[in-house]
C-alpha cells in the first residue's frame, strides 16, 4: 500500500522517471512497474495506469500500440511536449539534487537558508 508520502510527493518523481524512459524507448505498464520496483518503488497497477492516462491527457505521452500476445500491453512514447517538459524537469531535478542532496552532505552551514 502507498503511504501518504508516496501519493503526495513521490508521484511526481515517478512521472519524471516514466518520462525519462519513454524518451528512450517504448514503455508499457508491466515494464514500468518492474523498473520502478527495481528502484524500490512498489506501485500498484491501480496507481500506475491512471498516472499514465493523465500523462497522456496532458499531452506528454502518446499511445503507440498494443503487442498482440501480452495482456493489456499498451505501449507509450514521449511526445514533443513531453520532451520539452522533461528537459525543464532535468534542470530542476539537477538543481534540487545539488541543494537537497549535496548541500545536505556538507551541512551545517551558517548563514544560509
Ligand atoms: Zn529507470
The CATH C-level name is Mainly Alpha
Number of separate helices:
4
Form type? globular
CATH superfamily: Winged helix-like DNA-binding domain superfamily/Winged helix DNA-binding domain
Q: What is the CATH topology assignment?
A: Arc Repressor Mutant, subunit A
Low-confidence stretches: none
Give helix and strand order, one letter per element, not per position.
HEHHEEH
CATH architecture: Orthogonal Bundle
Which structural class do the helices and strands define? mainly alpha
Named once each, the bound ligands are:
zinc ion
Helix proportion range: 55-70%
How many angstroms does the end-to-end distance come to? 35 Å
Order the strands across the largest sheet as they lie in space. Answer: 1-3-2
Question: What oligomeric state do the depicted chains represent?
Answer: single chain
What would the average pLDDT be, to the nearest integer? 88
Query: How many E strands?
Result: 3
Range of strand content: 5-15%
The total number of structural domains is: 1
The largest sheet is: 3 strands, antiparallel
Structural Rg: 16 Å
